Amino acid sequence: MSQSTESTTESNPFTRPGFIIAAALVVALIASTIVIFLLPKGQGNAQPAPAPAESSSTAEASLDASAAAGESVCGLPASSETTLGTAPKSNWELVGRIATPSDPETFGPGTTDESGFRSCFSHSPTGALYAAMNVAALGSSGSTELQQKLADKLLVPGTGRDAAMREVAADTKTTAPTTPIQVRGFLMRSYSPSEANIDLAFETDKGALGRLTVSMRWMDGDWKVKPADDGVTFTGATQISDLSGLILWSGV
After folding, report:
1. What's the structural domain count of the chain?
2. Is this model's pTM higher than 0.85 or not?
3. Exposure of 38 by Cβ count < 10 A (0-12 exposed, 13-18 middle, 19+ buried)?
């Protein structure tokens, strides 16, 4: 028996009006990663474009003050390390359908509320990596409540966060992506006490690989994503042929 057009639209998030726009936002980070696999294949060693930089004196002052407050808001220990050249030994748990690292007493998430919203990561390279993966997993969860909290609490305040919050509010029938994907590797492109730029590589269940960069900022005792003015939370999304140049890291 054939499905009606309405029911098919409800079950497939890619056919809902506005979803392709939402896929470019943090509220659908994983879905947008899937979309890039439909684009022409890039070079396996292609490097994503650098994240946009901010230059205002106000932003710089905020970064300095935030970096000085090393301990996380939930009391996780800070680290003086500035590199992450090997894969951390991670415990993994599913957030939606995505295996996500978890070490609540050391790297985070130090706080998980009754809805499953995860936050508070350590002020360290590993904490920044865990935070980036946490955002990717929450964005793929299919839960409107989790995505609203993500946009509100885990994005750096500004025009980009406002755009993401509007997109979440407009998409009242959020659905998790139907194509399973999992993280396969990472690269810490740069790290300082106030900023981190991290490459993440994902693989679909069909074997396609994609790579993107997430830019993080330490503020208010946690790592938050720096979105562009239109709400996009990553740069340099591209399909890759292999995991060359990345540190292998996976939960499944």
Report:
1. 1
2. no
3. exposed
